[in-house]
Design goal:
Layout (H helix, E strand, L loop, with lengths): L3 H21 L4 E6 L4 E6 L4 E6 L9 H31 L17
Antiparallel strand pairs: 1-2, 2-3
Helix pairs in contact: 1-2
Subcellular location: Cytoplasm, Nucleoid
Protein name: Nucleoid-associated protein D0X99_06005
Function: Binds to DNA and alters its conformation. May be involved in regulation of gene expression, nucleoid organization and DNA protection.
């Protein structure tokens, strides 16, 4: 027989674990780099850019367009890296809590 009260308890427990994990996301960080490390971008789990570092040799007017491209590339790499960390963190927080239902992708639930 289906235990609705037991299921509701599991849902509340999962919600609490998700909120706890989301609160920790601000402490997750990821780095993306481009130009063989000439540009580095750091982001956090709230998908906010924390810091941009760049080689001083890029700080010339003639390199303005290239610098812009390198910043964009490094930022995109950092965002991809943090997305993976967020998914891993949220998956571990809810492991065993949410049933694995074939055909149902809950991977975007936390993004």
């Amino acid at each position: 027989m289906f235990d609705i009260m037991g299921m509701m308890g599991k849902v509340k427990e999962a919600q609490a674990k998700i909120k706890e994990a989301q609160a920790k996301l601000v402490h997750l960080t990821a780095e993306g780099e481009s130009g063989a490390g000439m540009v580095k971008v750091y982001v956090n789990g709230e998908r906010k850019v924390l810091k941009i570092e760049m080689d001083e040799s890029l700080l010339t007017p003639k390199d303005k367009e290239m610098l812009s491209d390198l910043i964009v590339a490094a930022t995109n790499k950092a965002m991809e890296a943090i997305e993976q960390k967020i998914k891993t963190e949220m998956k571990s927080a809810t492991e065993g809590m949410i049933p694995n239902i074939p055909g149902m992708d809950l991977g975007n639930l936390f993004g």
